[in-house]
Amino acid sequence: MADTRNLGRLLRRVHLSGTVSRADLAERMGLNRSTIMALTAELSAAGLVHEERPAVTGKAGRPSLVVRPNAEGFYVLAFDVAVDRLVAARVGLGGAVLERRTATRSRAGADLETVVSVLAHFGQDLRKNAPGGSVCVGIGASYCGMIRPEDGTVRFGPDMGWVDQAFGAELGRRLGLGLHVAVGNEAHLGALAELERGAGVGFRNLVYLHGDVGVGGGIIVGGKLLDGDAGYGCELGHMLVNPYDGRPCGCGSAGCLEAEVGERALLDAAGWPPELFGREQIGAVVTAAERGDESARTALRTVGDWLGIGVVNLINLFNPGIVVFGGMLRDMYPGVAPQLRDRIARNVLPVSRERVRLCTSALGDDATLVGAAELGFAGLMANPLG
Ligand SMILES: [Zn+2]
Questions:
Q1: How many A from CA of 308 to the centre of ligand 1?
Q2: If you measure from the C-alpha of residue 195 to the centroid of ligand 1, how many angstroms do you get, rounded to a whole number?
Q3: Share of residues in the chain with pLDDT > 70 (%)
Q4: How far does the centroid of ligand 1 lie from the alpha carbon of residue 252, in Å?
Q5: Residue 58 CB-density burial (10 A; 0-12 exposed, 13-18 middle, 19+ buried)
Q6: Residues near 224 by Cβ (< 8 Å), separated by ≥ 6?
Q7: How far apart are alpha carbons 131 and 61 in whole angstroms?
Q8: Which letter does DSSP use for residue 65 in this model?
Q9: Contact at 8 Å (CB) between 65 and 51?
Q10: Of the ranges 50-54, 60-64, 307-311, 326-330, which one carries the lowest mean pLDDT score?
């Protein structure tokens, strides 16, 4: 019987790489070929991976067998509660989104019962559509607020007005699968997803900024999420950048980064009326600026400078290899990139700015959903035969 730790490491490697040869696995995991063969044999007997001959390689000699994840046989249910939408997906081992359901969400807010009932209905529907004999191995959910990791309670969800709502427990009960629902903060999960499957692959130190109405963050240090003492770390949106005449923030303070660079900050600065909001309007400001609209250009310069001040502090503090902009900040990025670069050139320590890369999320709007799926897979990776 192979040891659980190495079985988990190997399954995780296959899960993240897709089809991979036994020889590559041996090299990347630092194990000899016979150990790899024993591990893959156990995972294959459990049905988690398939081993097969590779397509013709052209090389002489016997080719190494390739291992691929059993994507249809094992899956997780992943959920994303974002500011404007509710998403549910069936995600196969290997990480492919096999099927999804999406509902738009009103900004007016909703109670726990309403949100959970939409998600549970989607989840049951996705499960019904899964191939016969396939196994749901976990459930992960991303939520746009502060989450207690142990039980998935939403401690503070400002956009829905939620305080201490038992979201994870209630979703688990309504799904009725006897599985724990692991819940994470959307920006934490976005950061992990970008690190493992997106723009941050190959990096060990990453800062992820996720914009919607506000701004959330995830900081990866040495390959690990900086989650803080109780799991509420990385609230980059509430970094104080403008203490003297800052805009009021949803947290009760004023001059926080998200108050200065969030959706409303940009739209107000550009002179957009309050009834216009959302991602499309952010794109509209950027397009207007590109066409020469002076108030849109000024708004992007102002907001871009505040964002730059926040990013400067983060680079000086954490020396990341890459800073990734996700959510609404992805739409804003083309309009603010010059201000970011300017601030970095002026205010970041020269040694810290030498190598840092700025980019938009490679997983796009799926970053948080992919992160939720990975959270759902965590139990299987820790103990593949359990
Ligand atoms: Zn704040």
A1: 17
A2: 26
A3: 98
A4: 6
A5: exposed
A6: none
A7: 38
A8: P
A9: yes
A10: 60-64
